[in-house]
Amino acid sequence: MDIKPAVDTDLFEEVELLKKKVSSGLLPDDLKDKAFRMIKRLQRMAKFGGYSSEYEKVNHYINWILKLPWFEETEDVLDLDRALEIMNQNHYGMNDVKERILEYLSVLKLRKDKGGVSDAPILCLVGLVGTGKTTFGFSLAEAMGRKFIRIPFGGLGSLLDLRGQSRAHPDSQPGQIIKALRRCGSKNPVFMLDEIDRVDENARANIMGVLVELLDPEQNQFFTDYYLDYPFDLSKVLFLATCNNTGNIATAVLDRMEVIQMPSYTDEEKTVIAKEYILPKALKEAGLEEGTLAIDDDLWPLIVRPLGFDAGMRSLERNIQRISRKVAKMFVLGKEKHFHLRKDNIKEFLPSY
Question: What's one GO MF term for it (predicted)?
Answer without folding.
Answer: ATP binding
